[in-house]
């Protein structure tokens, strides 16, 4: 998937997008998600790794990253290498469509607020995605 916007470009291989979708399609009863690891350079957000979020609190319409979620993600990132950077997150909206809820906007603005940090949303029921 390659998305061009006026300020930056998102680069995510078909393989990594497939991993995101596989995880999002793994549960149609509750929201699931994870983290996007890579780099932001030259006006591009380049996804190099996808991490499934572990130890989350989730319902049909909300996904919450707990302290254990963040600890597990940081541990996985340290295994990737010292230059692994968190550049965004992804999550599902089962049968709710592709948009950012007020809660999603809060997560984005609090934890992923640097220029170039991204969000990918997948609706596994309707088969749609957006970023």
Could you explain the architecture of this structure?
The structure is a single chain. The protein has helices spanning 14-25, 67-80, 102-111; strands at residues 2-4, 9-11, 33-41, 44-52, 57-58, 63-64, 85-92, 118-123, 128-130. With 131 residues, it is of the alpha+beta class. A seven-stranded mixed β-sheet has the order 1-2-4-3-7-8-9. It has a two-stranded antiparallel sheet with strand order 5-6. The longest helix has 14 residues, at 67-80. It is globular.
Helix content: 25-40%
Low-confidence stretches: none
Shape: globular
| Count of DSSP strands | 9
CA distance, first residue to last residue: 10 Å
User: Helical segment tally?
Assistant: 3
| Physical arrangement of strands within the biggest beta sheet | 1-2-4-3-7-8-9
Arithmetic mean pLDDT? 91
Order of helices and strands: EEHEEEEHEHEE
Give me the secondary-structure category: alpha+beta
Radius of gyration: 14 Å
Q: What percentage of amino acids are in beta strands?
A: 25-35%
Describe the sheet with the most strands: 7 strands, mixed
Features of this protein?
27% helix; 131 residues; alpha+beta; 7-stranded mixed beta sheet; two-stranded antiparallel sheet
């Amino acid at each position: 998937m390659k998305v061009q916007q006026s300020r930056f470009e998102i680069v995510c291989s078909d393989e990594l997008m497939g991993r995101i979708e596989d995880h999002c399609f793994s549960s149609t009863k509750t929201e699931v998600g994870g983290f996007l690891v890579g780099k932001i350079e030259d006006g591009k957000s380049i996804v190099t790794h996808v991490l499934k979020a572990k130890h989350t609190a989730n319902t049909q319409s909300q996904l919450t990253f707990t302290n254990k979620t963040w600890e597990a993600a940081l541990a996985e990132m340290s295994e990737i290498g010292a230059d692994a950077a968190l550049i965004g997150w992804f999550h599902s909206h089962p049968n709710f469509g592709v948009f950012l809820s007020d809660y999603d906007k809060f997560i984005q603005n609090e934890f992923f607020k640097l220029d170039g940090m991204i969000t990918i949303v997948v609706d596994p029921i309707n088969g749609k995605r957006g970023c």
